[in-house]
Design goal:
Shape: elongated
CATH class of the largest domain: Mainly Beta
Number of strands: 7
Order of helices and strands: HEEEEEEHHE
Distance between the termini: 93 Å
CATH topology of the largest domain: Urease, subunit C, domain 1
Number of domains: 3
CATH architecture of the largest domain: Roll
Radius of gyration: 25 Å
């Protein structure tokens, strides 16, 4: 069964396609149509732990900017970037409750070695010594 379309409809659709092809995703297009993606990043099929002691669940995580926007089943086509996390644990971060990096934070304030291990919070000074806050010579 062939479907007929009107000449007007054909011209309208053709001109839209030509306009999109010619301008790409430039700012000339309608607002919200630049990337046509809902998320900057989707972590696919990772074992997600909520940090409350529950069992992990297999799910996708949709991230937009610096915020988690959706957890569940998400189509890969909705993301600019997709990371396949099947077989990997996905969690909010770990707390190192006994840390000795306080002085090294002055040299490396980004604490890359901790971040690469999933540690997002450091607790220092619980051995009785910490260089923070720095003492003033003024009394």
């Amino acid at each position: 069964m062939k479907r007929k379309i009107s000449r007007r409809h054909f011209l309208k659709k053709s001109s839209q396609i030509i306009a999109i092809a010619g301008f790409g995703s430039s700012s000339f297009l309608l607002k919200g149509c630049k990337t046509n993606k809902d998320f900057d990043l989707v972590l696919k099929e990772g074992e997600v732990f909520d940090g409350l002691g529950h069992e992990g669940i297999e799910a996708d995580i949709g991230i937009l900017g610096d915020s988690i926007k959706e957890i569940g089943k998400i189509s890969s086509s909705k993301a600019k970037t997709v990371i396949e996390a099947k077989g990997l644990a996905v969690c909010s971060g770990f707390i190192d409750v006994h840390d000795h990096t306080d002085i090294s934070l002055l040299v490396n304030p980004k604490a890359e070695s901790s971040i690469r291990q999933g540690i997002t919070t450091l607790i220092s000074g619980n051995c009785g010594y910490s260089p923070f806050p720095p003492r003033s010579n003024k009394i």
